[in-house]
Amino acid sequence: MKKLAESGLTKEEIIKAYRYVLLGRRLDERLWQLTRIGKTSFNISGQGHEVGQVAMAMAFDHDKDYFLPYYRDMTPCLVWGMTPKDILLGSLGKEDDPSSHGRQMPNHYGSKEHNIVTHSSTVSTQFPLATGVAYGAQLGKKDYVTLTTTGEGAANQGEVQEAMNFAGVKKLPLIFVFENNGYAISVGREEQYASEKLSDRGPAFGFTGIQVDGHDFVESYLAFKQVVADARNGKGPALIELMVTRLTAHSADDDHSVYRSKEDIENLKNNDGLLLFEKQLIDEGYLTREQMKAMDKDLKEEINQATDEAEAMPDPTPDTILEQVYADK
Predict the structure, then answer these.
(1) What is the pLDDT of residues 6-19, one digit of tens each?
(2) CB 134 within 8 A of CB 146
(3) Which helix (DSSP H) or strand (DSSP E) does residue 86 occupy?
(4) pLDDT, mean over the chain
(5) CA distance 136 to 129
(6) Measured distance CA(134)–CA(328) in Å, rounded
(7) Where would a tag sit more exposed on the chain, N or C end, judged by fewer CB atoms within 10 A?
(8) Are the CB atoms for 119 and 152 separated by under 8 Å?
(9) pLDDT beyond 80 at 329
(10) Are 179 and 152 in contact (CB under 8 A)?
(11) HEC assignment per residue over 66-104
C-alpha cells in the first residue's frame, strides 16, 4: 500500500478524504436501518467501495466536471457536493429530493446543481449518455471532463461497448470506471468474463486501461489524477477497473448467504477498505483513534439531524405527478 504522503495531498485533504469515507459508511448504514423498519422501500449498498470512490471523486473538478454515477455511488456523490439530507430525501421519496423530486427509486442519484446526472434502473444506460455529455464538451470546446461508472456485471452490456468504442474514436474527455466487487448480484467473476482484467478492454477500444486496488487510497487517487489530467489535455478517454469489496448483499432484496460461503462472509471485514484506511491513517500519524471516534460521533449527529429534517419534508402530491418529469417548454 502506498504511503499517504505520496498522494501529494495535504494532511487536511487526506483527513477530509477519510471524513467522506466514514460519512458514506455511516449514511449507508442509516439507509439500511430505514429500509429494515419500513420507512424506505429499497437500498443498494456501497459499503466496501468507499475508499476507492472517494479517491476517484477527489481527482475531479466538482465545479465544472460531470458525473454520471451508478447505484452504489452515494459516497462519491457526497464528495461531488450532495448532502446527507439530499440522499435521504431521495430514499424517502420527498418532493424536495434533488434527484427526481420523489419520482425515482432510491439510489438513483442526481443533482442539476452539482452536474450529477441521474441514471435509469436499466443498468449501464449511463454509459452512452456519458459519451453524449463528453461529446458536448468536445463540440463546444468546453473544459470539462465526464466521469461515468458501473459494476463489473453491467460492464458486459452491449451499450457499454458501444459507448467506449465511440469515445475512443472521437477521443472524448471521458473516464469510464468499472467498480469490480466480484459479484454481478449472485454471479461470481469466473462466470462473468474470461479475461484476466476488465481494464484490458480499454486498449481494445484505443485508450488507456488501468486496474487499481480500490482499497489503496493513494494508488487509486494517483491513477485517477493522471487520467483526468490526460483527458483534460485532449488525450482522450480512459478506463479504470477499481477493485473493491462488496461487504453486504447485493441489495435490500437479496440474501448473499445463498451464494457466498459462511467463511467468505465472515472474512469480508479483513478486506474492508475503511478499516484498512483507518489503520494506515493511525500508523502514518494523520489521526489518532480518539480523533476518529470524535469525528464518528459528529457525523452520526449530522446524519440524525438530516434524517429528522428529511422525514419532516412533504411528499409529492398526486396532482403533480407529471411535473418534474418532462422539460418545460
Answers:
(1) 999 999 999 999 99
(2) yes
(3) helix 84-92
(4) 96
(5) 11
(6) 24
(7) C
(8) no
(9) no
(10) yes
(11) EEECCCCCHHHHHHHCCCHHHHHHHHHCCCCCCCCCCCC
What size, in residues, is the chain? 329
Q: Which residue has the cell 483534460?
A: 232
Percentages of the chain per state (helix, strand, coil), in multiples of 5? 50, 10, 40
Question: Do β-strands 208-213 and 238-243 pair in parallel, antiparallel, or remain unpaired?
Answer: parallel
For the full predicted model, state whether its pTM sits above 0.90. yes
Backbone angles phi, psi at 321, to 5 degrees: -60, -30
Distance CA 115, CA 132 (A): 14
For residue range 77-132, list pLDDT tens digits in order: 999 999 999 999 999 999 999 999 999 899 999 999 999 999 999 999 999 999 99
- Fold topology of 4-312: Rossmann fold (3.40.50)
Query: pLDDT digits over 181-207, tens only?
Result: 999 999 999 999 999 999 999 999 999
Spatial separation of the C-alpha atoms in residues 197 and 175, rounded to whole Å: 17
CA atoms within 13 A on the CB side of 275: 9
Residue 54 scores a pLDDT above 80: yes
pLDDT for 327: 78
- C-alpha grid cell for residue 207? 485508450
Residue in 282, 235, 217, 191 with CA at minimum distance from that of residue 7: 217
Q: Which residue has the cell 473516464?
A: 175
Q: Indicate the burial class of 80 (C-beta count within 10 angstroms; 0-12, 13-18, 19 or more).
A: buried
Q: How confident is the model at residue 299 (pLDDT cuts 50, 70, 90)?
A: very high
Phi, psi of 298 (to 5 degrees): -65, -40
Average pLDDT over residues 233-259: 97
214 contacts 220 by C-beta, under 8 angstroms: yes
Place of cell 457499454: 160
The pLDDT value given to residue 328: 76
Query: Is the Cβ–Cβ distance between 95 and 316 less than 8 Å?
Result: yes
Domain locations along the chain: 4-312
